[in-house]
Amino acid sequence: MNSDETQTFFGWCTAINFGLLILTSIILIPFQGKIAKLHSWLMNIDEQELPRIYMNYLANYKLGIFLFSLVPYIALKIMD
Predict the structure, then answer these.
(1) Which residues contact 12 (CB under 8 A, 6 or more apart)?
(2) Could you report the per-residue pLDDT of 15-34, keeping only the tens digit for each?
C-alpha cells in the first residue's frame, strides 16, 4: 500500500465512522426511552444509569475516531 492508498483508506474510515456516530446519535436521542427499557432488561442495568452510559459510549467512540482515523489521515495529508 502506498501513501495515497493509505490516505484514502483513512479518509474513508473517518467518513464511515462519523456516519455511524451520527446515525447512532439520531437513533438514540428520539428512541432513548424504548432503547433504555430494552437494554435495561437485556443487561440488567438500572434505566436511570443508561443515559450516562449512552453519552459515555458516544464520547468514547468519537475520541476513538479522532485518534485512530482522523489524526492518521491528517498526518498523511501533511506528509504529502
Answers:
(1) none
(2) 999 999 999 999 998 898 89
Q: Three-class SS of residue 6?
A: helix
- Structural domains in the chain (count): 1
pLDDT tens figures, 38-57: 999 999 999 999 999 999 99
> What residues make up the domain containing 46?
3-79
CA 14 to chain centre: 10
Sequence-distant (≥ 6) Cβ neighbours of residue 67 within 8 angstroms: none
d(CA 52, CA 45): 12
